[in-house]
Amino acid sequence: MSDQIKTVDAATVMGWLKDGSAVIVDVREPHEHRAGHIPGATLVPLSQFDRAHVPDATGKHLVFHCQSGRRCGPASAKMVAGGYTGDIHRLSGGMAAWMAASGPVER
Question: Is residue 27 part of a domain?
Answer without folding.
Answer: yes
